[in-house]
Hints:
The structure is a single chain. The chain is of the alpha+beta class. The protein has a domain at 148-285: Endonuclease, Chain A (3-Layer(aba) Sandwich), CATH 3.40.960. 32% of the residues lie in helices and 11% in strands. The strands form three sheets. The protein has a six-stranded mixed beta sheet with strand order 6-5-7-8-9-10. Strands 1-2 form a two-stranded antiparallel ribbon. Residues 287-304 and 310-321 have low confidence and may be disordered.
Amino acid sequence: MPMRKSPAAFWFFQRCAAYMLQSVQKGRLGNIISRRCKCDTAVPCFGYAGDARATCCSKCKREGMVDIKNLRCNCGKARPSFGFSDDVRPTCCKQCKAAEMVDIRSPRCKICNKLAFYPDEVGRPRQLCAAHSAEVGAHTRSPPGRSRIASECFDALEAEWGYKLPFRYRFDTTTGTWSGEEFAGLVPSRNLQPDAYDPEARKIFEFLGNYCHGFPPEHPQHDSFVCVSGRPAAELHAETMARLDLFLAEGFEVVYMWEHDFIQWQREVASGTSLALATQLNQHGTAADKKKLAARADVGERVLGGLRSWSVVGCLCTWYR
C-alpha cells in the first residue's frame, strides 16, 4: 500500500520551521530577550551616540562608541547626577556641573537639604522632604510605622483574594483615618512586627518601600540609589533580607512586594494591560526570589528550542511524505 502524502498544513508548517531555523543560524533571528554582543560572550553596553540600544561589549567596541547602558559624564570618570531643572536625565557629575544645575538623580529638599520625594505647594514632584511637603499642604503624613501606599497594596491584594488579612494597618481614604493593628512577638526577643500577618496560614506579608529598604540586586538603582539617612540601597537591601530571614527561621512563610513593582502595576492598571497583582509577590528564602528574572531570561532559549523542535517535526514530515 503506497504511503499517504502529508496534509498541506504539515507541508506549510515544515517549510516555515525550516526557514525560521535557517534565519536563526544565519543571524537574521536571535534572542531578543537577553541580547548578546556578536562575540556571544557578553551583554552589549556600547554603541554610537544616538543609537537606540547598545550593540557591542567593552572588548568588541569600535572607535567612537560610548557606553549607552551605563551613561557617564562627559569627563568619563563618573555617572551623571546633575542637570538643568527641566532636563529629563542628568548630564553632568558633581565636579563638572554648572552653577545653575540641580541634583536630578537624588533631589534635595530646597528648605532643609534632605532627600526630596514629595511635591511642593504647586504640585511639582520631588521638591520637598515629607515634613516640609506636609507643612505646605501637599502631602499627608502617616503615623510612624504606617504607609498609605502599603495600605493601598494590601487593599488591592485583598480585593483579588476575596478575604481580609487579619493583622495589618488600614487607611480609610474617605475619612482619612487609620484602623487595625500589627502582630508582634513572632520572633523571640525581637520586637518585629510584619506589615501583615495571617495566623492560620502562618504567612507573613511585607511591603518593601524603596526609600527604607533599597532595591533588589537586579534593579539598576541597587548600587547607585541613596536611601534614608544617606545609606546606600544595597546596604538596606541586605539588612532587609536578613530581617526576613529571622521570620523564616521561626517557620513562617514570608512573601513581599517591592514598592517599584506595585507602582509599575498601578501604571499598567491605568493603561489596561495589567496582570493580577499577586503575580508581583516574591517568596523569600526560595528560588522564587529570582523566578521572574529566570523566566524572562529563559524566554529566548525556549523560543530557540521551540524552533529546533519544529525542525525535527519538519524532518519527520519529510520522512513521512
